[in-house]
TrEMBL record:
This is Trehalose 6-phosphate synthase. SUPFAM superfamilies: UDP-Glycosyltransferase/glycogen phosphorylase (SSF53756). InterPro entries: Glyco_trans_20. It comes from Sphingopyxis flava. GO terms for biological process: trehalose biosynthetic process. GO terms for molecular function: alpha,alpha-trehalose-phosphate synthase (UDP-forming) activity. Belongs to the glycosyltransferase 20 family. Transmembrane segments: none annotated. It holds the Pfam family Glyco_transf_20.
Length: 458
């Protein structure tokens, strides 16, 4: 069996109980896939050193090896905070208004991709499958080829792919996408993102696109481009749900809600997640319906993310102001309607919180997939399941069609969805949940990784 070499910016070993949770979907998913498959997980250590050396730190845990390198402060600024999170992330989430196009960011991004290629090459053996993750490394395949690597190399993009009209605003967009065509397989979270990618290749690169076969041909190379919707590690998550930690978390939340219906949101504090819009929807619900303070409790768990980037500082300030204002207006002496919590929780605790909540509110403005929606479904009590309200702009909406789907920008629609969810009869809740749960259980992270790896083997 071929070894798997996974490359991602963040390498995180889930420490299980009490692990900090602000790591996002990629880390959670790769932990699941590598535990199953074994191999090496290569990436940034998260540490900075004054001068880059490329020295590898190797460690072994959970059945796989991690190999990490430190970066220089300038790398982190230009590649991670800069090109990855001030240029590509906003552009790929349709926030062209927030995208910053600075030359230094682009140069830093290319420099770090080259550094990663250099450090990775000595680790790779001839039969290894190299699987690169996410928007931090779009040109890494091309860099590895430039160093003579002949192995099969795949890329999976965890975030959306933007419409061509937006992407062409990026300086050197052609160079970036042409570099991507040095991978053997490129995977997307949904058919919508895949279609946008194929559209770009056809229109801007004049490449040969075969939609049936899912291939793109340019300059004598053929690349497979397909949708591989990611899932959660269902088995592992359900096992966590059996623990005393999960049970205690559930009891604690239900008890403290004092008979109110609990609505839960769990998101990295990111402008793509639609958090201020959720409060606007709540505002309408509280304004139009009597006595909501006695009926509803909204818990928003939102660990801070990418705190050196200004747009993230701004979204945090906006949310603090909005929740403060909301609670000021709607609290009673002994009841506060929004609990806004800026920290991570262990995954077992999260399971308990999801289960305690009768409504899961997952309303990103754009999201590659959104694993929180799937975790919420998995954690429900089959005999008395809660209702998932899901943005139609999340990749997950292509699969989770039995959720209450909403346009997160239409506050009235979200308000109505909340009202519908509060009153949904048990039979309907059960029927929707059964359909949702079948998808979440059957299309898990293990089958996702297997599908991608099969395609990568060629
Ligand atoms: P993204 O990848 O953009 O962060 P996803 O919804 O796909 O969004 O994945 C988020 C992952 O991070 C989920 O597995 C979720 O459980 C986890 N997570 C988010 N917030 C927390 C938190 N406060 N504590 C623990 N885990 C969290
Ligand atoms: C999303 C991205 C990941 C990223 C994660 C957390 O899931 O797709 O690549 O790791 O967010 O963001 P961070 O910048 O903290 O790694």
């Amino acid at each position: 069996m071929s070894r798997l070499i996974v490359v991602s910016n963040r390498v995180s070993v889930d420490k299980g109980r009490g692990a900090a949770g602000a790591q996002g979907g990629l880390a959670v998913a790769m932990n699941g896939a590598l535990r199953q498959h074994g191999g090496i997980w290569f990436g940034w250590s998260g540490e900075e050193v004054e001068h880059f050396t490329g020295q590898l730190t190797m460690a072994r845990s959970n059945g796989f090896t991690t190999a990490t390198i430190d970066l220089e402060p300038q790398d982190v600024e230009e590649y991670y905070n800069g090109y990855a999170n001030r240029t590509l992330w906003p552009l790929f989430h349709y926030r062209i208004d927030l995208a910053e196009y600075e030359n230094e960011f682009g140069m830093g991004y290319e420099r770090v991709n080259e550094r990663f290629a250099n450090s990775l090459i000595p680790l790779v053996e001839p039969d290894d499958l190299v699987w690169v993750q996410d928007y931090h490394f779009l040109p890494l395949g091309e860099r590895l080829r430039a160093h003579g690597l002949k192995n099969r190399i795949g890329l999976f993009l965890h975030i959306p792919w933007p419409p061509t009209r937006l992407l062409v605003s990026l300086p050197f967009h052609e160079r970036l996408v042409k570099a991507m065509l040095h991978y053997d397989v490129i995977g997307f979270q949904s058919f919508e993102w895949l279609e946008s990618f194929l559209h770009y290749c056809r229109k801007e690169l004049n490449a040969g696109v075969d939609e049936q076969k899912g291939t793109v041909e340019l300059g004598g190379r053929t690349v497979v481009a397909r949708a591989f919707p990611i899932g959660i590690d269902h088995k592992e998550f359900m096992a966590l749900g059996e623990t005393e930690v999960a049970r205690r978390a559930q009891v604690r939340l239900v008890g403290s809600a004092r008979s109110r219906t609990v609505v839960i949101g769990v998101d990295r504090l990111d402008y793509s997640k639609g958090l201020p819009e959720r409060i606007d929807a709540m505002e309408r619900l509280f304004a139009t319906k009597d006595d909501m303070v006695n009926r509803l409790l909204y818990i928003q768990i939102a660990p801070p993310s990418r705190e050196d980037v200004r747009s993230y500082q701004e979204i945090r300030a906006t949310l603090e102001q909005k929740t403060g204002q909301f609670n000021g207006a709607h609290s009673d002496v002994d009841l506060v309607p929004i609990r806004y919590v800026n920290r991570g929780f262990g995954r077992a605790e999260l399971f308990g919180f999801y289960r305690a909540a009768k409504i899961g509110l997952v309303t990103p403005i754009r999201d590659g997939m959104n694993l929180v929606a799937k975790e919420y479904v998995a954690a429900q009590d089959p005999e008395d399941p809660g209702v998932l309200i899901l943005s139609r702009f999340a990749g997950a909406a292509e699969q989770l069609t039995d959720a209450v789907l909403v346009n997160p920008l239409n506050h009235d629609e979200v308000t109505r969805a909340l009202w519908t969810a509060i009153h949904m009869p048990l039979e309907e809740r059960k029927a929707r949940w059964r359909a949702l749960n079948a998808v979440v259980r059957d299309r898990d992270v293990i089958s996702w990784a297997e599908d991608f790896i099969e395609a990568l083997k060629g």
